[in-house]
Amino acid sequence: LRGPDGSMNTAVDGILLEFELASRLFSRCVQALMLTALAYFYLHHTGYWSTPLLLTALLYGLHRMMARRIEVVESTPPLDLRQSRLISADLG
Predict the structure, then answer these.
(1) Can you say whether residue 27 is alpha, beta or left, with left for phi > 0 and alpha for psi between -120 and 50 degrees?
(2) Interval 29-70: pLDDT, tens
(3) What is the Cα–Cα distance from 10 to 64, expressed in whole angstroms?
(4) 8-11-17 Cα angle (round to 5)
(5) Contact between 38 and 56 (Cβ < 8 Å)
(6) Between 3 and which of 7, 69, 79, 82 could a Cys-Cys bridge form, CB atoms 3.0 to 4.6 Å apart?
(7) Which of 19, 21, 20, 39 is closest to 31 using CA atoms?
(8) What's residue 85's pLDDT?
(9) 19 pLDDT exceeds 80?
């Protein structure tokens, strides 16, 4: 079965858009979880200000590390299947 010419490019473009959306939603969910943990520790601290401050530094570091990794993944070009050995060149 074949679709019209160019339909595979349209499908791949749609997949890349969905990947970007899923990546952004995942990032926002993790950030919301970090903010929730931060708010919990600031509201329920036991009198030692060092604990929430250390947690703030830890969460900021995790946020920066996650942002850098997401940037690397999103900037990497997708796999070009025509040059890959995963698929034979005899597809026609």
Answers:
(1) alpha
(2) 988 998 898 888 888 877 777 877 888 899 899 889 988 988
(3) 33
(4) 145
(5) yes
(6) 7
(7) 39
(8) 54
(9) yes
* Integer angstrom CA distances of residue 60 from 35, 53, 67, 68: 10, 11, 10, 12
Under 8 Å between Cβ of 63 and 34:
yes
Tokens of 3: 């679709």
Per the rule left: phi > 0, alpha: psi between -120 and 50, beta: everything else, 76 is beta
Inter-residue contact 82 to 9 (CB < 8 Å): no
Check residue 76 and report its DSSP letter.
S
Among the residue ranges 2-11, 12-21, 79-88, the one predicted with the least confidence is 79-88
Secondary structure of residue 79 in the 3-state scheme: coil
